[in-house]
Design goal:
Layout (H helix, E strand, L loop, with lengths): L1 E4 L4 E4 L7 H9 L9 H21 L4 H16 L17 H19 L5 H5 L5 H37 L4 E6 L2 E7 H23 L4 E2 L14 H15 L4 E2 L3 H6 L2 H27 L10 E2 L17 H25 L9 H25 L5 E2 L1 H9 L9 H4 L1 H14 L3 H7 L5 H7 L2 H4 L11
Parallel strand pairs: 5-6
Antiparallel strand pairs: 1-2, 3-4, 7-8
Helix pairs in contact: 2-3, 2-4, 2-6, 2-8, 3-4, 4-6, 6-7, 6-12, 7-10, 10-11, 10-12, 11-12
């Protein structure tokens, strides 16, 4: 046990931990939940510290021995398992200062132990930096690091739906608008529409992520760059890019980039849009798979588990239900990000910890939910083609294709007769000798009913 001092006073620090007094105070001050600072954010901060040490050495403001010790310590942290050294809760006051100081302390102590050179967490590891430029930059880097996995999961769902569309392109089904029968379509069209929706989510996320590449690094406390050398300000972003394999750029207005967090609002909105689309898709799956006797029973969802502790043989759509709940969470997180962004005051937004916690939770859960949905549900979806075909044949609304031949009102009367007598429209057409048999067959073919062959172009 040894003692360390900060502006508040002295604290006893265990000898077997890598962090120091600032981290201990944060542990005591913010015992909030089980969610810790995300590893991607910690990694981004370490990369920034490593780059800063190199640039400060080149600027002549950090002795080579200390710079090399910091570099070696950062490399150790990046390649090893030091989870226990970063114990802070994700939600914390101080605009991220506790997390920044936690990383500073760990790097300084590890560097000192490994090299024998005294390295100070503030004077050396945090040189030319402020939490106010390092922390938001690290948050953007972490978001960009998590993005490829999420994009791949969305793209895989879209691709799987394209494959389903190809396999069912000729399978007829009743279309529905406002939950009422509408003109027929095919499962190929339906699956393609879902695939297009998720492909659009990929593009939306990529577009929203472009703003995250503009960072205020080098601006220190409020954007002015106070306490950072001109050399550091010019070179730090390139040094980070080299280590992180990113294409960050320094914001044209670092004051603006320090106090405004609208880039996170935009990105969160794209995550929300994906969640909304997932909700729509999963709601459709549950509705189309309802039954099997008293529901629509057009889709057969893979059976994943017993659905009831009292009703034997009941199977529930548990995978879409779980994805719905993830979507609800993401939509709620978006509101949190919005409120946190709006609550920022003057030269700094103090609420970036909850913004990052919300974004990282949304991204992680969405990726996991998408993989689960694709692998455990969509790949095994089966279309009840026979039931769908029978519904089309007995759907009076299919008679819409007759309007160019009989007119709107005569067709309406025919539909009413079909509904009242429970007879099919083709049968009534033949019985009343309203159209030749060959024309009836062509009009009620899959191509005609789904608009592939315009009704007016059918010979009669």
């Amino acid at each position: 046990m040894h003692y360390e001092e900060d502006c508040v006073g002295r604290l006893a620090v265990p000898d077997d931990v890598l962090y120091g007094v600032h981290t201990l105070r944060a542990l005591d001050n913010f015992p909030i939940g089980q969610q810790k600072v995300h590893p991607a954010l910690i990694k981004a901060l370490i990369l920034i510290k490593q780059a800063a040490a190199a640039v400060n050495e080149q600027a002549g403001t950090l002795p080579p021995a200390r710079a090399q010790a910091i570099d070696h310590a950062c490399q150790q942290l990046l390649s090893g398992d030091y989870t226990q050294a970063f114990p802070l809760a994700a939600i914390q006051g101080g605009a991220g200062t506790s997390t920044n100081m936690n990383v500073n302390e760990v790097i300084a102590k590890l560097a000192t132990r490994s090299s024998g050179v005294a390295v100070h967490p503030n004077d050396d590891v945090n040189q030319s930096q402020s939490t106010n430029d390092v922390y938001p930059t690290a948050g953007k880097m972490a978001t960009l690091a998590l993005l490829p996995g999420l994009l791949a999961a969305v793209a895989q769902l879209s691709q799987t739906l394209r494959q389903k569309a190809l396999a069912t392109q000729a399978v007829l089904k009743v279309g529905r608008t406002q939950l009422q029968d509408a003109v027929p379509t095919t499962w190929g069209h339906s699956f393609d529409a879902y695939a297009s929706m998720f492909a659009r989510d990929v593009q939306r996320l990529r577009q929203a992520a472009t703003a995250l590449q503009s960072v205020n690094l080098g601006g220190t406390a409020i954007g002015s760059g106070v306490n950072a050398s001109p050399y550091y300000q010019r070179h730090i972003v390139d040094a980070v890019n080299h280590r992180a394999q990113l294409t960050l750029s320094q914001a044209p207005d670092r004051f603006d980039a320090t106090q405004a967090v609208d880039a996170f609002v935009t990105f969160s909105a794209a995550l929300k849009a994906l969640a909304v689309n997932l909700n729509k898709f999963c709601n459709d799956l549950r509705l189309l798979g309802s039954g099997p006797q008293a529901g629509l029973n057009e889709l057969r969802l893979p059976a994943r588990q017993a659905g009831s502790s009292i009703m034997p043989g009941k199977i529930n759509p548990v995978i879409p239900e779980a994805v719905n709940q993830v979507a609800f969470t993401v939509i709620g997180n978006d509101l949190t990000v919005t409120l946190a962004a709006e609550a920022g005051q003057l030269e700094l937004n103090a609420f970036e910890p909850v913004i990052f916690a919300s974004l990282f939770t949304s991204m992680t859960q969405l990726q996991e939910a998408l993989v689960m949905l694709t692998d455990k549900c969509v790949k095994g979806l089966q279309v009840n083609a026979g039931a769908c075909r029978r519904q089309v044949e007995h759907s009076a609304i299919a008679a819409t294709v007759l309007v160019p031949y009989l007119g709107y009102e005569p067709t309406m009367r025919l539909i009413k007769t079909a509904l009242a007598t429970q007879r099919s429209v083709p049968a009534l057409l033949a019985e009343q000798d309203l159209l030749p048999a060959t024309t009836i067959a062509r009009l009620f073919s899959a191509d005609s009913l789904t608009g592939q062959t315009p009704a007016a172009a059918v010979n009669h």
